[in-house]
Protein: WD40 repeat-like protein
Organism: Mycena chlorophos
Amino acid sequence: MPPSRGNPAPRHDMSVILVTGSYDHEIRFWEAWSGICSRTIARTGEAGQVNRLAISPDKRLLAAAIHKKINIYEIGSTSSDPIATLEAHTGNITAVCFHSEGKWLVTGSEDGTIKIWDLRTSQLFNNYDNSSPVNDVVIHPNQGELISCDQAGRVKLWDLSQNICQQELTPVHDLPMRSVTMAADGSLLIAGNNKGIIYVWKLHDENSGPPRFQAVTKFRAHNKYVTRCLLSPDAKYLATCSADTTVKIWTMTHNWEFHEDKVLVGHQRWVWDCAFSADSAYLITASSDHTARLWDMSSGESVRQYNGHHKAAVCCALHDGAG
């Protein structure tokens, strides 16, 4: 994140990429520390809200899930026109993430499929039938597996090399699982559902066969929807966003239990999305109150608010690490 409060980042500093998307059909780039909007992609006349955003590992591309399609934008450009548009989903796209090398893009959709795209050709490379609307997808840190969650209440681990689902976790059938996150070392898997319950699984290495996850705990994080759950890069924090307008920060004890560390209060409506800084010291959140906020994890205080969207801000992306 920016170097210090007294030394804001230069106006065109590309070391920190912060982007938000909204139901107002706009994508906004922000100077993280000053709060100034440095660029707006206004999709005038184009149908569909911006659902999810992802920044490529090299900070060159922005993938925006817009209703049933994905627009790929060049971050260093001033043009509002995408350099590619990926179309094959027949339902709302709910997840988008880049593979570590930036050559592949993974998307999940309410059409019940997970798709892998080759960004070098802008063509569909592979398709997985989940048989239920997909709510979230993340790429395993080993880059060889995907983890998804869906409306049927399932968390699935997909093996990319064998094109199969190698493990299915279903705490409660037909209770939608809203969001999924994984520790950077692949040892911990966490998901949150529509009832505000968080489920935690740890990696269990068996003597034979592939490693599998086993349940270790569950707890109620909120009394309403969990819209997003996210582990910090250092796995010190778990952030849970909710329909109750709050973001809660949890820390894990030595016996896999989670303790409520802070409640981030300031948003006036649902909080839809969040993103940690690379050093886990800051959190960005996006809310239906039209704003995004920057939070200091040490104090739990909101240190910057990003104003400019005219409707709900429902997604955000942050990349302040090495490009």
